[in-house]
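Researcher: Batch entry, complex prediction.
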Amino acid sequence: MVELKFDGDGFLTNPEIWSEEVAKQIAQEDGIDMSDQHWAVVRIIRSNYEEKGNAPMIRTICKETGLKLKDIYELFPLGPARGACRIAGLPKPDGCV
Amino acid sequence: MEKLTKKQIDDAVRLLKMPPDSKLVTHLNACVHCGLCGESCMYYKTMRDNRFIPARKVELVSSLYRRYCTLTGKIAPFLVNAKELDEGTVKEMVDMLFGACTMCGRCVKHCSIGVDISYVVHFGRRMLAAMGLVPDTLQATVNAALDTGNNMGIPVGDFVDTIEWLEEELIDEYGENARIPLNEKEKKVLYTLNPREPKFFPLSISAMATIFYAAKESWTISTNMYDVTNYGIFNGDNAQAGQIAKRLHDEMYNMQSKLLVLGECGHGSRVNRWEGPNYLKHPYDFEVATVVELINSYIRNGKIKLDKNRNQELVTIHDPCNLVRNGGLLSEIRFAVKNSVANFVEMNPCGTDNFCCGGGGGQLAMSEYNERRLKIGEIKAEQIRATGAKIVATPCHNCVDQLSQLNHTYKLGVKIKTIAELTADALVFDEENED
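Model: C-alpha cells for the complex:
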C-alpha cells in the first residue's frame, strides 16, 4: 500500500495517489459514512481537480449533483473545502478556508 | 534551513535601520520584560512554553535592533544581549512571529506600559519578508491575489456564473427587483466579498443582497475587483499589501461609486479602511464603511424593518480582533445583533478583551501550524460552550472558518453565522417591496 502523506491541515500532499479507498479512510476520520450523495459530491470535486487543477465552485457542485446548498453543508459538516475537498484528496485551497 | 546570504541579511538590517518613524524604537526599548503579557496570550496559556510569551517575541526583534543599530551592541553584543541575524535566529523568528502569533493584540491591551507587541511582530514579519522567508503556504494566498485578482484564484466566468445563480434564486423568492447588479457604474455602493463566499459559502452574499433589496440601495459588485481580503498585511510585504489595496482603491474610480463597503472580513476591513491610505501614502477621497455600519444605518434610518422574534435561538457574538480591539466596532456589532435576534448572551471575556478565534494573523493559510491553531482555539471553544448559545455570530469570514473547525473538533453543536445572515432572517418586508 502506498504511504499517505498529509499536510498539517490533513490535506493529502501527494494528491495523485488518491483512490476511493483513501477517500473512505479520510471520511472515517471526520465521522462520515459515505453515502451515494457523498460520493456524487466527491467525484465531481475530484474530476474538476484532475481536469482543471483546482476545486470547483460550490455552484458547479450543486449543478452537477442536483443537490441544494444546504444538503451539501449537511453532508459535509466541515464544509466543501475542509470536508469534501479533503476527502476528494485535493491539496488545501488558498484563502480563508 | 539554508545558509543566509549577505544580501538577505543586508535587506533585513536596512529595514531595522530605516523604520518609518520612531515608534518601533520606542516600543522595542519600552518593554521591561515584566511578563504580564504571558497570561494574555492564547499560545502561552494553552502550551506553557516561555518561547510563546509575547515579550519574548518582542525580544527577537529588539535583540537584533541592539546588535545592528546601537554602538554597544556593535562593539560588545554580549553586554546588551544583542543577537546576530543568523540561521538560528531566523528559524526562531519564523516559528514564533509567523507560526505562534495571530496578531490579535490582546497582549497589547494587557501590557502595563502599552507596548504595541503586534506592531513589533508585524515588523519582524517585514524583516522575514525582506529575506524571502515567508512560509510558502501564506505566500501562496498573497500570490493568488496578485496573479488572479482574488485570493482563491476564481476565474471571472465562474464568479459571474455563481452570482447569476444566486440572483435567479433571489428573484424567484422576492421578484425581479431583487438583483445582484454586476459592473454597474455610478451606483452609490461598491460592495466587496471574501472570495470564500462565491467559492464555497454563498449564503452570506444572498443574505446581503436581500438586505440591499429591502433597503432599496443603489449598489453593485465589480467582477474586476471584489476581493476585500489582503493577506499582504500578514506576510509582512507592504509593497504587495499596497499593490492589492490599490486595486480596490482604483476600482472605486473605475466604477464611479461613492461608498466602498467592506464585506464581513476583519483584516480586510482593517487594511482597506485603516491601513490602506498609509500603504498608498495618500488619504482616500471616497467614503469607506464596514458592512455592519451600513446595516446599522439602515436600521437607524428606518430603511429596513426587523422582527427579532424571527431569530429565537440563543445567540452569542465572537468579536473579531481587527474589528473590535483594533477597529472600535464593539457597539456597532451589538447594535446589529440585538436588533436582529430575540435572545442574546455575551461571551466572557468579550469586546476589547475577547480572545481571538485562533485563526487570525494568516494562521488559517499556514497548514504547518495547524496543530497549534486548533490547540489555542480550545480557549475560544470553551468560551462558546460556557454561554450555552446555539448560534455564534461574527462579522468575519476568517473567524467563521476557524470557528466552524472548532465547532467540529470540540463538538460544540452550534451554528456559525455572519451578521448579514442573522439580519436577513429578521427582515420584514412592507408591501411596496413585493412585486
